[in-house]
Amino acid sequence: MTLRQLLRSSVAAACIAGTLAPTGYAAPQPMVARGALDVRVAQAAEFSRVEFHWAGGARMTPVRQGQTLVLRFNRDANPNLSALKIAPPRWIKSADARRVNGVLEIVLTLTDDADAKLGTADGVDFVNIYPKAGAIASAAAAASPATAPAPVGRPNPMPRDGVVRAGIDRRDGQVTLSFDWAAPAGAAVFRRGEAVWIVFDTPARLDISKLPGTTPRYSKLQVYRGADYVALRVVAPPGEPYVAVGSGPSWRVSFGAGPQQSPDIIQVTRAEQSPSAALSAAVAGVTRAIWVDDPAVGDRIIVAPALAPAKGLPSRREYVEFALLQSAQGLAAEAYAADLMVQAQADQVRIGRPKGLALSPASAAAPPEEASAGAPQPLSMPALIDLEAWPKTGSGGFLARYNALQGAVSAASEDEADIAARLALARFLVGSQMSFEAIGVLNAGARKHQTLMGNPEFRGLRGVARVLAGRLSEADADFSSPVLADEPSSALWRGYISAKNGQWLDARTQFANGTRALDLFPPIWRARFLKAQADAALGVGDLPGAMQAVTKALAQAKIPVEDQLDIRLVQARIFEAKGEKARAQRMYTAIAKAPIDRIAAPATLRATQLQYARGQINATKAAETLNQLRYRWRGDGVELEVIRALGKLYIDQGRYREALEVLRSAGRRLSDRPEAVALQNDLSEAFRQLFLQGLADGMQPIQAVGLFYDFQDLTPIGADGDQMVRNLVRRLVDVDLLGDAAKLLKYQVENRLNGVPKAQVATDLAWIYLMDKKPEDALNTINATRTTILPPALNAERRLATARALMGLGRYDAALDLVETDTSRDGQEIRGEIAWKQRAWPAAGALYERSLGDRFRTGGALSAAEEARLLRASVAYSLADDDAALGRLRARWSGFIETASNPEGLRVALQGMSMGAVSASDFGRVSADNEAFNGWIGRLKERFRTGQPAGSPARAGG
């Protein structure tokens, strides 16, 4: 599309009509009746547009005389041409209005390279001004660095080759970018969002090839170039310090804290001479006002570069139609209004709109009562607070007072005056209960004046503001600074913070140190300090001291109802501690009705506890009330107390899972409070009661193990934790839940234990694997936990477990090697089982008989293990055709047949296969492995029931 076609496009016309050109501003002519004509100006990249909006319509007749365009209308009017006169758009040199024969003529003087096109759209006459044909190429050439026009009144900073080569220097933790021009160049350095912009007023080509793409101080570099500027966008971390230093033709921009001085502060004031509301900024050496495209945001920003030395704005300033950005050099602004106009001239940058900016009334800058009101004054101690004088506003009201105190900060030219003004503003804000605003003012002052950190009043004021804002830990850091260490008013605040955190002994010490400052505080804070003092006394059991502090607190004048309820709540706790339960309960019930949850919640908790303790409600009703209460109030020690009380109620009701869940629900929040420590102790104690002291023995084993798994992180390290696991394993083994038992022990072995305890638990795990017919897992467990420091008894038990595992894997010779010299009954039994499996019947019969010993001399029924060994011995002798040995067994053991658990099987075994009455099937029935295996399982279960670790004397024998 050609430029002519573009200009004829109705879409383009509509777009540009809505984009007013904010290119300049100055005070307009005195306002008179404007008649019926509204002249509107807009500017696009390729053309400018002037529209003439008549009320009732008018006919326009153009006359072109060279580069002068005369627009004659058939009506008269008094139009406002300030936008055309003060900051004419591109391709227009000047504009003027004149009256000829009673009608209006507007004269537009075009630049030498400009042409114009007139037209009408929607009943509105317009003029589009654009570069002449062939002028676009020449304009591009003019924009090239080599031919860019020199600035008026100063040397041209453009280098001969049109290239400025950026350099870099790293020193003392700073990264410094350098830009060397041919002559002094105007620059602006400011932050917008994530990036710091460096803008120069000369459109040279910026060569950044020698700069690294990233450094610890910045992460990205981007170059942008316009017709009248070049800019470098540097993405730097939020809060990264930056400073600009100009010297001759060079600019140095440093990132990171360093020794460079802060720039001079640009003073922004109301433009008093402007007939409409406008602002004026004193920017010495300002060169021009530039509109810079910001591709990251998709809009344009106004930049006013200036010559060295550096001057800037220390912080962002918000206005209704625009915002001034924080800068280290020059001025920059974000435009919110489409018709914002900026003019840079004679060391001044003027910002306005055709109809004026939306600013506070001029009277707000100097309230008439300011002199009489006076600045808020410091008190005799640095941490005192004055709630009467400090928040006074005078007849001008709050905003006037605030503006006056803030204006004093801006107007202060010396450090001492600036510090005094900032402290006065902070006193006003603290006295007005605007704690967060006061913190911001004080922090800004500390950033500007490092010496403020050693100023006692600064520390005291900021500490007070932080207490009012609920930032107790930060406040404590201020009150504990060396400059306030021995200061009595600060001691009261430290005691107050300690009481809030439940640190009763520290609180009492600090309150004692601050006694002489108590009467210097306002009554409301005297009452609060005394209430906190009563809390601390109650916390250490000093009931007379607590009651004395409560009495003094209640005697203070003009105490708000909320504070009175706070004090009464402490009084009720004192009555409860003294044993006056009924009186305390009445007070709790009354306070619980207050519409202030912060006070009603603890009152409800204590009233419910007393009702339950006195039998007025049952555990279910108490638990229901507390469960509702823990969701009603969150975030302080009261919540933790509610959770503790609810957990204890659930345990009393046998609702063990709910008890553990509610106790753990608080997590690690508020971990520095004593209630949190007590809650964690309650949680650990509940777990101990369940799994160490037998409280969980009444639960089904599978429920018990599920509960343990869900809360196994509470298992204590050491002997108690090991005993918990053994107790649970014992129950699981009893009901043949061998897989679950193995999981418990495996977790202990792999995650919690070392040395001898690990070997003991691993031995138990191996036995469980053997009972579960997993000999390979048993062997691997034993081998993985071998060590040279084990006691002999534990080593012996591990050898037996290893031998059984090898036997289960069919490695009989290896198993025999392990127990060959073992004379214990277990060792003999393993050798007997191996002989049985190898069908060495004579040896097997002898080993089983020997393992029975002289038991036949003692009356009473045989145990399952003894009966199994007797069966094995009988069958082995029978299969070995050793009738003499079989006869000996019959003679000694026939008397036990009737009391045996399997009398028929024992009778068949003792008769032997040689007896005609015994069939082959009968004999096979008693020679199976399962009887001996089941007997061994039973003995192992008995060992686990002892609850003793592997290798202990209580588990010896069988």
Q: Which secondary structure elements does this structure contain, and how are they paired or packed?
A:
Elements: H1 3-8, H2 10-17, E1 37-43, E2 48-54, E3 60-65, E4 68-73, H3 82-86, E5 92-100, E6 103-110, E7 114-121, E8 124-131, H4 135-143, E9 163-171, E10 174-180, E11 187-192, E12 195-200, E13 205-207, E14 220-225, E15 230-235, E16 242-247, E17 250-255, E18 264-265, E19 268-270, E20 279-282, E21 290-294, E22 299-304, E23 311-312, E24 317-318, E25 322-324, E26 327-329, E27 331-335, E28 341-345, E29 348-352, H5 370-373, H6 397-411, H7 415-431, H8 435-448, H9 456-468, H10 472-479, H11 488-500, H12 504-513, H13 523-539, H14 543-554, H15 561-577, H16 581-591, H17 597-613, H18 619-632, H19 637-652, H20 656-664, H21 674-691, H22 701-710, H23 719-734, H24 738-751, H25 755-771, H26 775-784, H27 792-808, H28 812-819, H29 825-837, H30 841-852, H31 864-879, H32 883-893, H33 903-911, H34 920-926, H35 930-945
Parallel strand pairs: 9-13, 18-23
Antiparallel strand pairs: 1-2, 2-8, 3-4, 4-6, 5-6, 7-8, 9-10, 10-17, 11-12, 11-26, 12-15, 14-15, 16-17, 19-20, 20-29, 21-22, 22-27, 24-25, 25-27, 28-29
What is shown here, in short?
With 958 residues, the protein is of the alpha+beta class. 45% of the residues lie in helices and 17% in strands.
